[in-house]
Amino acid sequence: MLHSASPLPEDPRTPAAAHRAGANDEETEVPVPVPLYQAKAEFFRMLGHPVRIRVLELLQDGPKPVRDLLAAIEVEPPNLSQQLAVLRRSGIVTATREGSTVVYELAGGDVAELMRAARRILTEMLAGQNELLAELRDTPQADPQADPRAASRAVAPAASRATAEAREGGAE
Fold first, then answer.
1. Most buried of 38, 49, 67, 113 (most Cβ within 10 A)?
2. What are the Low complexity biased-composition ranges (predicted)?
3. How many Å separate Cα 15 from the centre of its chain?
4. Into how many domains does the chain fold?
5. pLDDT, tens digit (0-9, with 9 covering 90-100), for 130-165
């Protein structure tokens, strides 16, 4: 006598099982590739420290020895070393030894582009917050061709009006 094998239960999360269960194809959710979004979140988390951001801004001008980074950032050497290690491990910066000096540089041009985009976005976000906007404008920008004042003039018209009104003491 032949025994028929009982089929294994089907994973109800598969599109085929959902379809057989009567779910509409348009309603079937496509699983989100979690590892990709986790990697993106980790990337932005890695950027989430003021010293790391400042290092990346300074390196937009080109390679810099650690002593120059220390002078510009004014943090304790162990703190800078720790933050540089995070950037180095992530692959966003590279380090080379030149004699007794360690020189850091951005691993690629996309990082500089990201920092410029972040500056533009932040300028727009701070348009109604004059004090922070003034600080952003007064902070030297690494890219000598970019003028932060020009970036603030490129703010959306509504944000520009809000800034002008705030300067004149008008509506918020």
1. 49
2. 141-163
3. 35
4. 2
5. 777 788 888 877 655 554 444 444 444 444 444 444
